[in-house]
Amino acid sequence: MQWMTNFSIPESPSPITYQSKILSMGSCFADSMGRRMKEAKFDILVNPFGTIFHPSILAELLDHALFKDKLNEGGILQREDLFFHYSSHSDLNAKSKEELGEKWAHQIEQTHQYLKDGSHLILTFGTAWLYEHQDFGSVANCHKQPQSLFKKKITELDRMVLDLFHVLDNFSRAFPDLKIILTVSPVRHIKDGIPENQLSKSLLRVLCSELERKLDSVSYFPSYEIMMDELRDYRFYKEDRIHPTEEAENYIWEKWINSQFTRETLVTYQEIQKVNRELAHRPLNPESKSHQKFLQNLKSKLERLNEEFDFFNEIETVSKTLQGFH
Question: Residue 4 falls within a domain, yes or no?
Answer without folding.
Answer: no
